Amino acid sequence: MSDNRIEGYARGLFEIARAEGTLDTVENELYRFARAYEGNDALRKALTDDLIPPAKRQAIVEDLLGGKADSTTTQLISMVIGAGRGRDLPKIVDSLVKRASTVKHQEFAEVRTAVALTADQHKRLEAALVKATGKQVNLKVVVDPSVLGGVVATVGDTVIDGSVRTRIEQLKSRL
Amino acid sequence: MSVLGIIAGRFTGGLAGTAGRIMAEEEIHLDENGEVITHHWLLPETAEIIYGGIASLLIFAALWKFAGPAIKKAMAARTERIQKELDAAAADTAMAAEEAAEIRRAKGDIESEKARILSEARAQAEAVLADGRARLAQEVAELEAKAVADIAGAEGRVGDELRAEIASLSAAAVDHVVSGSLDDATHQELIESFIKTVGASA
């Protein structure tokens, strides 16, 4: 899909979420879903299979997210999948998050951890990143078991890597 | 006196004698069989010798006078012909000697050419042999060098592969050990450490 079309979908989703007044929640949920969607081959294959009718693919989304995510989030994902744009969902969501960050005058920051952060850790980490970068950040946390342990934070073009995975890679490199 | 003179003398003497005897009515002696008896069975009478000698001289003179030039001419022609034949033979001999010398020289040239060709062939064979030996030695040296380089490369590759394998196994072991040893407390400790480090880096 062309960049213009991805931007168009992102803008549409953004405007709907903002109109619903659930931008922060929807943005977070879409981001987490996009990362899970990227890491799950079976889910991705099911939601991008053109042989499966759109209604059935939307039903899968609703089964997965129903009751666990905001209804707006579920409906937006269902709409993208039903439109046959499942392959571009991660890019659409990334574009939406960047747009939301820009609107909120924040720098998009992605944090990957092996285990979920507590609310307190989330708050302190956000404050630490604000302090470190000197910018307000729109923090998105992704639970990524491949990190093994520690945290990898990406703020704009800056990467702060404190993961066990990276230390093991460095050890491999030395070996 | 020549035989011819004797015969001529005898003939002329006989005729003269008979004529003399007839003319002088010389006494003739006969044997009991009526045959004339001479004073000698071979030699004629003295007068006969004189007449015969004179006749012979006349014949010789006539021969000298009339046949001499022709005989001399024939003899000169014969001498000239023989001389020509001798000259031709000498010329042929000289030519043959020259041809023989030419043949000997040619033979000598052939021998020397043969020797030269053989010498050149030997020299070329030596050169080819030396070149072949040199090339062979060079190829052997190159093959040895390549073999040494291949062995060194193979050793290096094996070493690298071994190191990579050890590293891979070690990394897998580290992954396994680390992931197995990371409990929740350690995760929390790592996250807190990260937050503290990032916060302190401002």
Number of helices of chain A: 8
Radius of gyration computed on alpha carbons of chain B: 70 Å
**Structural class assignment of chain A:** alpha+beta
Label the CATH architecture of the largest domain in chain A: Orthogonal Bundle
* Shape designation of chain B: rod-shaped
Helix/strand order of chain B: HHH
CATH topology (fold) name of the largest domain in chain A = Peroxidase, domain 1
Succession of helices and strands of chain A: HHHHHHEHEEEH
Beta content of chain B comes to under 5%
Into which percentage range does the β-strand content of chain A fall?
5-15%
Shape of chain A: globular
Through-space gap between termini of chain A: 43 Å
- Let me know the number of strands of chain B: 0
Structural class of chain B: mainly alpha
Major sheet strand order of chain A: 2-1-3-4
Largest interface comes to: A-B, 25 and 27 residues
**What is the distance, rounded to the nearest whole angstrom, between the alpha carbons of the first and last residues of chain B?**
176 Å
Radius of gyration of chain A: 17 Å
The counted number of beta strands of chain A is: 4
Helix share, percent of chain B: over 70%
Description:
The complex is a heterodimer of chains A (175) and B (202). Chain A has 8 helices and 4 strands. By secondary structure, chain A is of the alpha+beta class. Chain A folds into 2 domains: 3-100, N-terminal domain of the delta subunit of the F1F0-ATP synthase (Peroxidase, domain 1, Orthogonal Bundle); 105-174. In chain A, strands 2-1-3-4 form a 4-stranded mixed beta sheet, sandwiched between helices. The longest helix of chain A is centred in the first third of the chain and has 18 residues, at 3-20. The model of chain A has no long low-confidence stretch (mean pLDDT 90). Chain B has 202 residues and is mostly helical. Chain B has a domain at 154-201. Helices cover 87% and strands 0% of the residues of chain B. The chains are: A alpha+beta (175), B mainly alpha (202).
